[in-house]
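Protocol step 4 of 6: structure prediction from sequence.
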Amino acid sequence: MLFVEYTCMQEETKFGIWSDSNYLAFVISGKKMWRSIYHDYVADQGDILFIKKGANLTHQFSRMNSVLFSFLFRITSLEPFFRKTSIS
């Protein structure tokens, strides 16, 4: 599992990204949109999104910096946790 604090200081409002891992993105400040081939997902300050691995486009809504805290993980790394905590 990897934890990342990311400050978006891009001059561009749209940016393509690729991730080899699934991740949770928690928006600390600003507003962001992730666009997949199927849907657009908008997150405001305080929102958290689950982003599947692969390609996404991100969109920044204002020229203000957005700050994200991301938790990157592989699903297989969470399986032992869910097996131990499953309710019978």
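Step 5 (inspection) to follow. The chain has a mean pLDDT of 80.
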